[in-house]
Write a structure and sequence with these properties.
The chain is α/β, with parallel strands linked by helices and 150 residues long. It has a domain of 98 residues: Rossmann fold (3-Layer(aba) Sandwich). The protein contains 6 helices and 7 strands; from the N terminus they run H-E-H-E-E-E-H-H-E-H-E-H-E. The protein has a 5-stranded parallel β-sheet with strand order 5-2-1-6-7, with helices on both faces. Strands 3-4 form a two-stranded antiparallel ribbon. The chain is globular.
């Protein structure tokens, strides 16, 4: 049973920013954000920080991410945010250049988001908690939810 204070807290959530990088952990965060959005009617804004993904040409040379921005945007909207698509939940996708922690903070600030949701770690490693989730938890711009996956 949900108490009155729980209901008013849920009703106060109108915009959720979720960090997306295509990792299984970030897709779990998207799923979690979708469930909360269904319960609150909140808007979901999926954000991907460009710059971590590089493509290699056949010769092994890196290709600037700008050449693949449209492809990344499509993959984000269709594959990485699939839990929102499946739920028939309206969402916005934003791509921004920069380190993920900074991009998420700036997006939260510019949108006046009520919450930011991230996976426990992203594409970058195998530690218990990734650098982005750790940095957000240490200096939260708003309530931060770190969604476990494993």
């Amino acid at each position: 049973m949900t108490s009155r204070s729980d209901q008013s807290t849920l009703a106060a959530i109108s915009r959720i920013v979720v960090g997306v990088d295509g990792s299984p952990n970030s897709i779990a965060a998207v799923e979690w954000a979708g469930v909360l959005a269904d319960a609150t009617g909140a808007e979901v804004v999926a954000v991907h920080a460009l710059g971590l993904i590089e493509r290699l040409q056949p010769a092994g040379e890196p290709v600037p991410v700008e050449h693949h921005e449209a492809e990344i945007g499509r993959r984000m909207a269709v594959e990485w945010c699939e839990p929102l698509v499946r739920r028939k939940r309206h969402f916005d996708c934003q791509l921004a250049y920069g380190p993920p922690e900074r991009v998420l903070r700036e997006t939260v600030a510019s949108l006046g988001a009520d919450m930011v949701v991230v996976g426990c770690r992203g594409v970058g490693g195998s530690s218990l908690l990734g650098s982005t989730s750790t940095q957000l938890a240490h200096r939260p711009p708003c309530p931060v939810v770190v969604v476990p996956f494993d």
